[in-house]
Design goal:
single chain, about 55% helix, 3-stranded antiparallel sheet, mainly alpha, disordered C terminus, 6 strands
Length: about 250
């Protein structure tokens, strides 16, 4: 039996809203939850553009699942919109690593399925990233090169980028455009997360994860199919007692 035109149009209007804004509010969520036919159509429309529809709190979200999706944000757009004008791919991938470390802090180095803390400060987050980068530097160069092939991450470039930034003050080495501090870079990442509704600013340079992020973490970050072993590589070694706690989430 064919679907009624009204049902198809309801689903199409909801999909159009998600395609335009990537989110829809409580009224649309209720429709999505209560009408099986509408939900099936919206999910089908989303799959056709390599996206998934997620429920987080009282909101619906549509997120791209692959780079082939027309809703996937390109690297160039990310650099132009959220990073510096002279940003390069190393800046972008360093931002990804900062986000991975942020989530690892909330999920006890990815050992838990639920967050183990409610917020994280910018300074502490910066130190956690520094710990991960320091541990990356402890890998033999040959191993890093091999891992670069497997994960498509230029780990050496990330280490160099981070090392060229000053710890606190704006006195970083003026080479290759590295003229910002680590804290300034982390603040840029923080603003990106807030703009994408992946984090909420709770004041005092502290952020909390949104319901959207919690759903994404459970659905994608914990699955080897999606993270390609990057989490295991970054967190295979803990931090020694002289440097900090064993797990990032313990700090």
């Amino acid at each position: 039996m064919g679907l009624e035109n009204e049902t198809v149009m309801k689903a199409f209007r909801l999909y159009t809203l998600l395609a335009r804004d990537s989110t829809a509010g409580k009224e649309w969520l209720q429709l999505y939850m209560s009408d099986d036919a509408v939900r099936g159509l919206v999910d089908q429309f989303a799959r056709e553009v390599d996206c998934a529809v997620l429920i987080a709190g009282e909101q619906l979200y549509m997120i791209p699942e692959t780079r082939l999706s027309p809703f996937h944000i390109s690297n160039e757009t990310l650099k132009r919109t959220y990073l510096r004008a002279n940003a390069v791919n190393a800046d972008l991938y360093l931002m990804y690593v900062c986000i991975i470390v942020l989530i690892g802090a909330f999920y006890d180095s990815y050992q838990t399925m639920e967050p183990t803390r409610s917020f994280l400060g910018l300074d502490e987050w910066t130190e956690l990233v520094n710990e991960r980068i320091t541990l990356l530097k402890s890998h033999p160069e040959a191993e890093l090169k091999e891992m670069e092939k497997e994960f498509s991450y230029n780990w050496t470039a990330l280490i160099e980028k981070w090392s060229a930034m000053d710890d606190i003050k704006e006195t970083a080495s003026r080479q290759s455009g590295n003229t910002i501090s680590r804290v300034s870079f982390m603040d840029t990442v923080r603003k990106f997360l807030i703009a994408q509704e992946l984090a909420a600013d709770i004041g005092n340079q502290e952020i909390a994860l949104t319901e959207k992020t919690k759903v994404i973490v459970q659905r994608y970050f914990m699955e080897l199919e999606y993270n390609r072993g990057i989490l295991e590589f970054l967190y295979q070694f803990g931090v020694s007692e002289g440097e900090g706690s064993t797990h990032a989430g313990d700090l």
